[in-house]
Amino acid sequence: MAVENLMAGNALRLLAEDAEGLAIVAAAVQDSLVKPQDIKFDARSRTFGLEINRFQWERAGKRMPFFRSRAVVGIAAVEAVRSRSVSRDIDAVHSLMAIKFEPAAEPPGGTVTLVFSGETQIQLQVECIDVTLADLGPSWPTRRRPDHEKRRP
After folding, report:
1. Structure confidence by residue, pLDDT tens digits, 49-101
2. 94 - beta bridge partners?
């Protein structure tokens, strides 16, 4: 497993270089919120990034206080990007539910899929897994803890 944690105080910094490390990053960003304007792909540098409001699962108990922090997810060695149902509405907010990796026939490449609530997905064809997560500033309290067990009417 190749994941490096450079945690300083409450700021989380992770580097993933394989599927096991990516699973750790995915767990840390589950239920993060992102606006469409905070999703960027730079074809020249082959990098993809998300600026997110990350729910801090590593600090969450069963009751308040809960915390979020502004963070950035960076994915390098991106060869192609495909998306489905990403809103162009500047007021839209997508909830990141999972990050999955499907290896290519020729490792270490493959497809990284960002799965959001609803039908939204972003697929990244990557040369290899090279993913970073870094909290950008201080955390703030939030009253809501994401709950996947809630029944919807």
Report:
1. 999 999 999 988 888 889 999 999 999 999 999 999 888 888 899 999 999 99
2. 34
pTM: 0.87
In degrees and rounded to multiples of 5, residue 117 shows phi and psi of -60, 155
- Where residue 33 falls among pLDDT bands split at 50, 70, 90? very high
109 touches 46 (CB < 8 A): no
Structure tokens at 61: 């108990």
DSSP strand pairing (140-142 vs 66-75): antiparallel
Phi, psi dihedrals of residue 51, rounded to the nearest 5°: -100, 125
**DSSP-derived pairing of the beta strands 94-103 and 32-34:** antiparallel
Please give the Cα distance from 48 to 46 (Å, whole number). Answer: 7
Q: Is the pLDDT of residue 6 over 60?
A: no
Q: How many helices (H) and strands (E) does the chain have?
A: 1, 12
Per-domain residue ranges for the chain? Answer: 3-140
**Cα–Cα distance measured from residue 151 to residue 81, given in angstroms and rounded to the nearest whole number:** 34
